[in-house]
Amino acid sequence: EPTTALDVTIQAQILSEVQKLVREQGTSLIWITHDLSVIAGLADDVAVMYAGRIVEQGPVADVLDRPQHPYTQGLIDSLPSRNQRGQRLRQIPGMA
């Protein structure tokens, strides 16, 4: 994950440059990350993996707004949110 330890300003600059290169070269990009906000801003399509297998894939908006797989829903539910202030984050059961 090339941008994980970076502050948000530098992260945004790198992501912008990556998007620019993809457009200029007319190519695709595979970006592996646990950061759903990066995926929401960077990708057109997303694949969610669990235990080494793709369990859900599709357009980013569809997958993040209407997840079909329990693991995808668990990932989304485990994100901190201003609406959940003071509540414990949801754990995703199982083992990978």
Automatic annotation (TrEMBL):
Compartments in which it is found: Membrane
The entry's keywords: ATP-binding, Cell membrane, Membrane, Nucleotide-binding, Transport
The UniProt GO MF terms for this protein read: ATP binding
InterPro entries reported for this sequence: ABC_Ni/Peptide_Import, Oligopep_ABC_C, P-loop_NTPase
Report if keyword Disulfide bond is assigned. Answer: no
**In the UniProt record, does the keyword Nucleotide-binding occur?**
yes
GO BP terms? peptide transport
Which stretches of sequence are listed as region Disordered? 73-96
Oligopeptide/dipeptide ABC transporter C-terminal domain mapped to chain residues: 55-95
GO cellular component, alphabetical, reads: membrane
Q: Please give the superkingdom of this protein's source.
A: Bacteria
One Pfam match, given by its short name, reads oligo_HPY
Family assignment from sequence similarity: Belongs to the ABC transporter superfamily.
Q: What is the protein name for this chain?
A: Oligopeptide/dipeptide ABC transporter, ATP-binding protein
Organism, scientific name: Pseudomonas syringae pv. pisi str. 1704B
